[in-house]
From TrEMBL:
The chain crosses the membrane at residues 12-33, 40-68, 80-101, 113-135. It is an enzyme of class 2 (transferase). It comes from Haloplanus aerogenes. It catalyses: ATP + protein L-histidine = ADP + protein N-phospho-L-histidine. GO terms for molecular function: ATP binding; protein histidine kinase activity. The lineage of its organism: Archaea, Methanobacteriati, Methanobacteriota, Stenosarchaea group, Halobacteria. This is histidine kinase. It comes from the Archaea. Its EC number is 2.7.13.3. Keywords: ATP-binding, Kinase, Membrane, Nucleotide-binding, Transferase, Transmembrane, Transmembrane helix. Residues 157-356 form the Histidine kinase domain. The keyword Protein biosynthesis does not apply. CDD domains: HATPase. The keyword ATP-binding applies.
């Protein structure tokens, strides 16, 4: 936080400044107490008033003690002092204005000093506590920004190097394809290197999404669904795909939405117990959403597993694909659910928000 030089000098004495405020409140409270004793005599109410004011003074001193032992940086400690001063001045001014208005009306106001002391010192404590939470929130936000920047750099660095390696593999595989007759082992190399390159593209989209650089925008997902179906058909020749996807399905999403369909279609095939599995992919519009259904004819999912299916952490090994689907749908403001398919298997439904009408 950039502050003037005089503020930086005061910031180094932030706890002491709060202690001085607490001391001032105590002195003013004692002076007001002795004045009340001279006027009203020593009684219960002046004593109670003094106790209340001294308690608030102790609160400011306690805030000073906490600040002195805290791990807040210098700038954040000064923020706490400024909030405390602001609360004290603000609430004290409100109390003084209230008294001034009553006096201007010709009314007699007794005990005005007590109200100003209580309001001012209470505002100082409340402002200091609010300043602590504000400073911590700002610190957490700065730390999050630093971690995000570091992750973005790491992702960019790894993506660049892995993508270059995949492109080199693809290049040499192409050269070998032109020079050798037996290409039996080249096809898997080309497919896997292409898959790595595609994965890197997906990672770029995901990194941009999670770093906040990409926000959901209107896009047509029909072509993306069909593209993932064709990719799965090429990779799993024994599988049958029944597709009913209308064109121009515009939803609020990003380029990373392809990972949703890729993971769900892959799960429908890989967790199927049939030699020749069948996957059903359909989509339909509702007035507010677009629902995409991906179903299979596999063994299904137990009810107790369905309950916690989307609770897996995205970094965990098991269920990573499902956790990624849930994370992406949360970013898009959509929903994902799972149910039994009829007569056999599992159906997963992802619902996207439709773009607002223009």
């Amino acid at each position: 936080m950039d502050v003037p030089a005089w503020e930086r000098r005061l910031a180094g004495h932030a706890p002491s400044l709060l202690a001085i405020l607490g001391g001032v409140v105590a002195v003013v409270s004692l002076a007001n107490f002795f004045r009340d004793v001279e006027t009203l005599g020593l009684g219960v109410f002046p004593t109670v008033s003094l106790g209340l004011c001294l308690l608030l003074s102790v609160g400011l001193l306690g805030l000073s003690h906490w600040l002195a032992g805290s791990d807040l940086p210098l700038a954040d400690a000064w923020t706490v002092v400024r909030w405390s001063l602001g609360g004290m001045i603000g609430f004290g001014t409100l109390a003084a204005l209230t008294v001034g208005i009553r006096l201007a009306e010709g009314r007699t106001v007794d005990g005005a000093a007590l109200g100003i002391i209580v309001m001012g010192s209470g505002g100082g404590i409340g402002g200091g506590v609010a300043g602590i939470y504000y400073a911590r929130a700002n610190r957490a936000a700065r730390d999050a920004d630093h971690r995000r920047d570091a992750l973005v750099f790491l992702n960019s660095h790894l993506r660049h190097n892995v993508l270059n390696a995949a492109q080199v593999i693809q290049g040499y595989a192409t050269l070998l394809d032109e020079r050798v007759d037996d290409v039996t082992y080249l096809a898997p190399i080309e497919r896997r290197s292409a898959a790595i390159a595609s994965l890197i593209d997906d990672m770029r989209e995901l990194a941009d999404l999670f770093s906040g650089e990409r926000t959901p925008a209107p896009m047509d997902i029909s072509t993306g669904i069909l593209r993932e179906v064709e990719a799965a058909r090429s990779a799993h020749e024994a599988a049958t795909f029944e597709v009913d996807v209308p064109p121009e399905l515009y939803v609020m999403a990003t380029g990373a939405v392809s990972a949703v369909f890729a993971n769900l279609i892959r799960n429908a095939i890989e967790h199927n117990d049939r030699a020749e599995p069948t996957v059903f992919v359909s989509a339909e519009r509702t007035p507010r959403t677009v629902a995409v259904r991906i179903a299979d004819d596999g063994p299904g999912i137990r009810d107790d597993v369905k309950t916690h299916l989307f609770d897996s952490a995205i970094e965990s090994g098991e269920g990573r694909g499902i956790a990624l689907v849930k994370t992406l749908m949360n970013h898009y403001g959509g929903d994902v659910s799972v149910r039994d398919n009829d007569p056999r298997g599992t159906e997963v439904v992802v619902e996207f928000r439709r773009p607002p009408p223009e």
